[in-house]
From TrEMBL:
<dbReference type="Pfam" id="PF03450">
    <property type="entry name" value="CO_deh_flav_C"/>
</dbReference>
<keyword id="KW-0274">FAD</keyword>
<dbReference type="InterPro" id="IPR002346">
    <property type="entry name" value="Mopterin_DH_FAD-bd"/>
</dbReference>
<keyword id="KW-0285">Flavoprotein</keyword>
<dbReference type="InterPro" id="IPR036683">
    <property type="entry name" value="CO_DH_flav_C_dom_sf"/>
</dbReference>
<dbReference type="GO" id="GO:0016491">
    <property type="term" value="F:oxidoreductase activity"/>
</dbReference>
<dbReference type="GO" id="GO:0071949">
    <property type="term" value="F:FAD binding"/>
</dbReference>
<dbReference type="InterPro" id="IPR036318">
    <property type="entry name" value="FAD-bd_PCMH-like_sf"/>
</dbReference>
<dbReference type="InterPro" id="IPR051312">
    <property type="entry name" value="Diverse_Substr_Oxidored"/>
</dbReference>
<dbReference type="Pfam" id="PF00941">
    <property type="entry name" value="FAD_binding_5"/>
</dbReference>
<dbReference type="InterPro" id="IPR005107">
    <property type="entry name" value="CO_DH_flav_C"/>
</dbReference>
<dbReference type="InterPro" id="IPR016166">
    <property type="entry name" value="FAD-bd_PCMH"/>
</dbReference>
<feature type="domain" description="FAD-binding PCMH-type">
    <location>
        <begin position="1"/>
        <end position="174"/>
    </location>
</feature>
<dbReference type="InterPro" id="IPR016167">
    <property type="entry name" value="FAD-bd_PCMH_sub1"/>
</dbReference>
<dbReference type="InterPro" id="IPR016169">
    <property type="entry name" value="FAD-bd_PCMH_sub2"/>
</dbReference>
<protein>
    <submittedName>
        <fullName>Xanthine dehydrogenase family protein subunit M</fullName>
    </submittedName>
</protein>
<keyword id="KW-0560">Oxidoreductase</keyword>
Length: 287
């Protein structure tokens, strides 16, 4: 591993001042990605700033404005919190799929987002729940809809010295359900060949879908929303036929590549299957 300086500030302002210094400065929220990238020379750093001691970044709470997840909160903590509180089933499911239990205990949802891997498991769940990224730098703060946060594989719109402070997810209505599924060749600790997160809000008096959100992983340079599928489903009475048509439309938003884990056509078929399954799960959860 190349030599670099290490700082572990206990205040957000101190961290932002360190990251604003000249040089290649990298924040560390869990380290499960960045340390490996440094070791394999895929990233370089003059300074690594550990964010795990900053109280504002370790906060997770649910209040009137929604679910607030600090960028250094571990996947395990997010899973436990959302499982207990309810309302964000897809996020609870996806945080339990990130690597091994050991990685989940250390790695953060914020880190998973900022690593910006197209195959990241937590991102589709965050997208369907319309998460907003709250960022901070020495010059101020920004709010960025998460769908606009990704610039390419491993790339985000964060500027030099800017970090993800927290993710905010609006509280869903009582008639909302979500689900996340992925396909991997092994039972665990593998990268998704494809993943789908789905969310529906249904009017119980008419069985019409009033809101639909579908997000896809590992089938484009960045995580994507299946807008055509969402638009079709909204205003539609949800049943098996509607789910099948929605799944077919979701495939149109996938632009996968062929690699060692699967062909482009295989990934498209997985999107069709996983969309159908996640929507069916959502419908069952509303029953």
């Amino acid at each position: 591993m190349p030599n670099f300086d290490y700082e572990a500030p206990t205040s957000l302002m101190s961290a932002l001042e360190l990251l604003a210094q000249p040089g290649e400065n990298r924040p560390l929220a869990g380290g499960t990605d960045v340390i490996d990238q440094l070791k394999s020379n895929r990233r370089n750093a003059d300074l690594v700033v550990d964010l795990k001691r900053i109280p504002e970044l370790l906060n997770i709470e649910s209040n009137g404005s929604g679910l607030h997840v600090g960028s250094a909160v571990s996947c395990t903590e997010v899973h436990n919190f959302t499982t207990e509180k309810g309302g964000f089933a897809a996020l609870a499911e996806s945080t339990e799929l990130v690597g091994s239990v050991h990685i989940q205990n250390r790695g953060s949802v914020g880190g998973n987002v900022c690593n910006a891997a197209p195959s990241a498991d937590t991102i589709p769940s965050l997208l369907i729940h319309e998460a907003v990224a709250h960022t901070a730098s020495a010059s101020g703060e920004r709010e960025i809809p998460l769908i606009d946060f990704f610039a390419g594989p491993g790339q985000t719109v964060l500027e030099k010295g800017e970090i993800l402070k927290e993710l905010v997810l609006p509280t869903p209505s009582a008639n909302t359900a979500s689900a996340y599924l992925r396909f991997i060749p092994r039972n665990e600790m593998d990268i998704a060949v494809a993943g789908v997160g789905s969310l529906i809000e249904v009017d119980p008096s008419t069985n019409l879908v009033t809101k639909a959100r579908i997000a896809l992983a590992s089938v484009a340079p960045t995580p994507v929303r299946a807008y055509a599928a969402e638009e079709f489903l909204e205003g539609t009475k949800i049943d098996a036929d509607a789910i099948d048509k929605t799944a077919d439309l979701a495939v149109g938003s996938a632009v996968p590549i062929t690699d060692v884990r699967g062909s482009a056509e295989y990934r498209k078929e997985l999107i069709r299957v996983l969309t159908r399954r996640t929507l069916t799960i959502c419908l069952e959860r509303l029953a």
